[in-house]
Amino acid sequence: MKIVLGVSAGIAAYKAVHLARLFKEDGHQVDVIPTPASLEFVGKATWEAISGRPVTTSVFEGVDEVRHVRLGQEADLIVVAPATADLLAKARAGMAGDLLTSTLLASEAPTLLVPAMHTEMWQHPATVENVEVLRGRGIQVMEPATGRLTGKDSGPGRLPEPEDIKTQADALLGVQNFGHAYAAGTGEFYAPDPNIQPPLLGKTVLITAGGTREPLDPVRYLGNRSSGRQGLALARAAQAAGAEVKLIAGVMDVQPGPELRGIEVVPVETTEQLHGAVLREADTVDALIMAAAVADFRPADYAATKIKKSDDGTNPVITLERNPDILAETVTRRKEQGIGPGVIVGFAAETGDESTDPLQLAQQKLQRKGCDLLVFNRVGENLVFGQDTTEIQILASEAAKEQLAATGSEPEPGVRVRGTKQQAAEAVIGCLSRLLTD
């Protein structure tokens, strides 16, 4: 297919080089149209080397081909990454002062704009209004990521990772970017044949995401570091694989963007609320993915008023009690009552200790919980939680191993899937889809 990759003048333009390579690796023809100012960040020679196509910025170059019209007319998809505040304003106004804005105006192809700018610019009323108008016209405007920006600043406005942009672009192209096959030991992923039927078409997948908060008093709670990024990546991958997706969203640093429009989102905060939501939905879905970081314990007593420091300096004693084991209960209901999801996937975020390897703990959890698949990752203060990258291993029950082996897709012991959380999600959905094969 023919993709026009527009690049406007933001420092995040360097990430678009990787995005262009991803499109090329999938066999697409990529025409890069940088704005003149963006060449201050990434030069013309780089774009021509990556795309293998001539690169121009002005409507007065290649006049005999009428490129400002032809590129837009022939494109199957237009992606602009980064899309600066200036580019968004020009697109909203229908301006056509260079080759990129002219191409946008002359095309009826699906269009994906990927903003990148400082937080204040993204949140400015003018930008907010521009985005609203563009979306109202049917143009996809991706939510920016939250993180480190230029200089010392941090906040919403960061360009999403190229793999995440590509996932949304694939959805607009109609390419079902599911279950990237994993080349064992290489750390590389490759896309399957995009022409085959989505493997989860007609299936419903329930996904839990984010963390839980257990209130201690009106202002304090026990919580965890889960950001919800992995859960949203799973929702995108399941939706791309053709599934109807239901998302039970705990406390998350990120929220579903417009690319997940149409999915049912159930907000919860405590483990008890999550427990109730899962039980209500589990009997009506084909698969359950428990990606939420669920608190094992909650305060036994809730203080109606803020807990104060004592005058005598003694430390307060907080008694904890167990929360319900949602994963184990769902597996038990399926086993004893014959109701519930056909495939149940658990997550094991383990730190290990001096005497026990975290992988061993994950294997023990798989046996104890009885789920079909268990996604294991090592976690820590600066590892996995809140990051865009991850490292997972998919463990399978004995029954699931037999079924996966029959399709030649059994996760090999010791093989770790390294990459973005979106790539990890696609690997999980790939295994899940083969277990759901009729």
UniProtKB/TrEMBL annotation:
Region (Phosphopantothenate--cysteine ligase): 205-438
InterPro entries the record matches: CoaB-like_sf, CoaBC, DNA/pantothenate-metab_flavo_C, Flavin_trans-like, Flavoprotein
Gene Ontology cellular component terms for the protein in this record: phosphopantothenoylcysteine decarboxylase complex
Protein purpose: Catalyzes two sequential steps in the biosynthesis of coenzyme A. In the first step cysteine is conjugated to 4'-phosphopantothenate to form 4-phosphopantothenoylcysteine. In the second step the latter compound is decarboxylated to form 4'-phosphopantotheine.
Gene3D superfamilies with a match to the protein in the record: CoaB-like (3.40.50.10300), Flavin prenyltransferase-like (3.40.50.1950)
The Flavoprotein domain, residue ranges: 1-167
Catalysed conversion reaction: (R)-4'-phosphopantothenate + L-cysteine + CTP = N-[(R)-4-phosphopantothenoyl]-L-cysteine + CMP + diphosphate + H(+); N-[(R)-4-phosphopantothenoyl]-L-cysteine + H(+) = (R)-4'-phosphopantetheine + CO2
Phosphopantothenoylcysteine decarboxylase: region residues: 1-204
Co-factor binding comment: Binds 1 FMN per subunit.
Pfam families cross-referenced by the UniProt entry: DFP (PF04127), Flavoprotein (PF02441)
Domain of life: Bacteria
Binding residue positions for CTP: D296, K306, P324, D325, I326, L327, F347, K365, K369
Domain DNA/pantothenate metabolism flavoprotein C-terminal: 201-405
Cofactor: FMN; Mg(2+)
Similarity annotation: In the N-terminal section; belongs to the HFCD (homo-oligomeric flavin containing Cys decarboxylase) superfamily.
Official protein name in the record: Coenzyme A biosynthesis bifunctional protein CoaBC
EC number(s) from the headed UniProt entry: 4.1.1.36, 6.3.2.5
One Gene Ontology term of the molecular function aspect: FMN binding
Keyword terms of this UniProt record: Decarboxylase, Flavoprotein, FMN, Ligase, Lyase, Magnesium, Metal-binding, Multifunctional enzyme
Organism: Nesterenkonia sedimenti
Pathway: Cofactor biosynthesis; coenzyme A biosynthesis; CoA from (R)-pantothenate: step 2/5; Cofactor biosynthesis; coenzyme A biosynthesis; CoA from (R)-pantothenate: step 3/5
